[in-house]
Amino acid sequence: MPGAAPHAMLAMKEYERLAFHHAPDATLILSERRILAASLMVETVFGWSPQELAGKSIRILYPGQSDYELIGQRARRAMQERPFYSDARFMQHKSGQAVWMAGRGRALDPADPQRLAIWTYRPLEAGAAADTGLTKAEMRVAGYLVNGFTSKEIGLALKCSPRTVEVHRANMIRKLNVRNSFELVKHLLASVPP
């Protein structure tokens, strides 16, 4: 702010710091997928304090290496085309419990999306999943389906065979009374809150 009084600029920086630390969603600033800073809500959502996460790879928040790699690749490709990316995915709480999350990211350099990015995470309602009548295993598969993963990729992430993934997909199609995988994904996406 040219011409602004020094105390006004200091106050603005303090407001920006407060806004980040007290953001309503778990918010991370990442560089090369390492956590530079974490908001206070991160502890509520993931169980880790911001200090515990500082300097760590975001891999710590993923249930497995495959999830970390596959979601990272998809997000990087998407953010090279547009600055924002969002999806629903499984993340991991400090306790080891997998949590269904809405993830949103913004690359500050589209040419190199992982150089510096801001990510927010919000747990999705477990009740919405329960209303579908799907099992926990089916919900895990559903999380990958809505993000466009193939059966092979889902099998790798979940450490099961692609055939097992196909069985879960067929069961979901039957339970949700849809005709095919396209309608299944459409139905699943409609049940995820914005």
UniProtKB/TrEMBL annotation:
Pfam assignment, any one: GerE
Molecular function terms from GO: DNA binding
SMART domains on file: HTH_LUXR, PAS
Regions crossing the membrane: none
Domain HTH luxR-type: 127-192
Regions annotated as coiled coil: none
Keyword set includes Aminoacyl-tRNA synthetase: no
PROSITE patterns: HTH_LUXR_1, HTH_LUXR_2
Highest taxon in the source lineage: Bacteria
This protein's UniProt keywords: DNA-binding, Transcription, Transcription regulation
Database matches in InterPro entries: PAS, PAS-like_dom_sf, PAS_fold, Sig_transdc_resp-reg_C-effctor, Tscrpt_reg_LuxR_C, WH-like_DNA-bd_sf
Gene Ontology annotations of biological process type: regulation of DNA-templated transcription
PANTHER family (UniProt xref): DNA-BINDING TRANSCRIPTIONAL ACTIVATOR DEVR_DOSR
Annotated protein name in UniProt: Transcriptional regulatory protein UhpA
